[in-house]
Amino acid sequence: MSWELLLWLLALSALLALLVQLLRFVRADGDLTLLWAEWQGRRPEWELTDMVIWVTGASSGIGEELVYQLSKLGVSLVLSARRVQELERVKRRCLENGILKEKDIFVLPLDLTDRSSHEAATKAVLQEFGKIDILVNNGGQSQRSLCVDTNLDVFKELMELNYLGTVSLTMCVLPHMIERKQGKIVTVNSLLGIISAPLSSGYCASKHALRGFFNCLRVELAEYPGIVISNICPGPVQSNIVKNSLTEEVTKSIGIDTVQSHKMATSRCVRLMLISMANDLKEVWIADQPFLLVVYLWQYMPTWAWWLTNILGKKRIENFKNGLDADISYFKTWKTKHD
What is the C-alpha end-to-end distance of the chain, expressed in Å? Predict the structure, then answer.
């Protein structure tokens, strides 16, 4: 075989490999590191059993689905949110699979904005189970309103709940993890903690603040390699987050159901979260296309990202003014949604 033919074969192989990766990316619903971990990494069924896991925002949406999937792994669960009746409903459903017993699930009502209660809540969990292996900061609220129409109290409420409440609870749990020199703090952030989008100025600000705080905390805890700080950044996911979003006044929410067929199934999002937790990934992006592509552009080609964001942003505002979900119908569906 001549050297010229060999070089052509090598070039063709490289081109084919690139083509395969591009096709995989088109169908991707998570960043490439996360999907590699799903394929070759550690399984949640191996890594998370027998742990004590505290989940805030456990009464609906991602938090509710997360505790359902965790309940099948043989963990001890702490369920927190403001709505006690909803927490009890979630607990009953967790017990239906027959794996967990009554003693394995602790319902702990919690208001993230009442920061004075967080220390007592942490002590209650430690008294109940003796340890906290994983804290999942999932509680929060979104926003749907134009910045110029929004009362300052809305921005204050979003920062109090999404940012300061999460930081406060983390600071209460952290000394326990430092004492044990191990633990995981998993924060459900958002793609809007990386990029920005109209109608969510206060929400974006709170999520950007969270990402900055936990990235800084991770570096400060470098002397404790057993403590893992993980940021989970989902895109649009099927839940009530839009329905419960604040609007231009702190006393008003959207209050209506929106079309969700274009969003990722909550079960798929949570499965990828569990993969991230099992593999100690520092930050993951979970979204269907084209949302995932937009995040990659923001990360690596910000000038192009600004151009694309301006185009999509106009459509987002138009959808909102027409009473539609802000993120609907940017593009035709690229792939079949996961069940």
Answer: 50
User: What average pLDDT is seen over the chain?
Assistant: 91
Alpha helix positions (H), 181-290: 201-220, 266-278
CB 218 within 8 A of CB 212: no
Whether residue 296 lies in the annotated active site = no
43 and 19 Cβ atoms separated by less than 8 Å: no
Residue 142, both tokens: 């979104």
CA–CA distance, 136 with 152 (Å, rounded to integer): 29
Q: How far apart are CA 232 and CA 239, in angstroms?
A: 16
Calculate what percentage of the chain has a pLDDT beyond 70: 94
Average pLDDT over residues 84-106: 95
Helix, strand and coil in the chain, % to nearest 5: 50, 10, 35
Q: Which amino acid is at 241?
A: I
| Residue among 68, 163, 203, 224 flagged as catalytic | 203
Question: Beta-carbon neighbour count of residue 119 at 10 Å?
Answer: 14
Q: In angstroms, rounded to a whole number, what is the distance separating the alpha carbons of residues 190 and 207?
A: 7
